[in-house]
Amino acid sequence: MDKVRVFYDREGETLTVWFDDPATESVAEETGEDVVLIKNAAGRVIGFEKLHFVASDPHHLDVTLERVGA
């Protein structure tokens, strides 16, 4: 998958970022820092969820993607 998907749930106060197909989610592992790692069946991280995330402007959320390296 060549896209990053970002979902903000204002009501649930979560920000979820997917690096791979969400349908391949197999397990979610809490890190203890209000972050949940989302993994596929092979144990590879395919996304994460930030809990208790509140945007300063809930109607507008800017996302910037920067590429590092070649």
Structural description of this entry:
0% of the residues lie in helices and 37% in strands. By secondary structure, the chain is mostly beta strands. The protein has a domain at 5-51. It has a five-stranded antiparallel sheet with strand order 1-2-5-4-3, with no helix packed on it. β4 and β5 form a beta hairpin. The chain is globular, with a radius of gyration of 13 Å.
Brief summary:
The chain has strands at 5-9, 14-18, 27-30, 35-39, 45-51. It has 70 residues and is mostly beta strands.
Q: What's the structural blueprint in terms of helices and strands?
A:
Elements: E1 5-9, E2 14-18, E3 27-30, E4 35-39, E5 45-51
Antiparallel strand pairs: 1-2, 2-5, 3-4, 4-5
* Widest β-sheet, arrangement of strands: 1-2-5-4-3
Which series of helices and strands comes N to C?
EEEEE
Described by the principal axes of the CA atoms, the overall outline is globular
- CA radius of gyration: 13 Å
CA distance, first residue to last residue:
19 Å
Q: Would you tell me the structural class of the helices and strands?
A: mainly beta
Oligomeric state of the chains present here = single chain
User: How can the largest sheet be summarized?
Assistant: 5 strands, antiparallel
Percent of residues in helices: under 10%
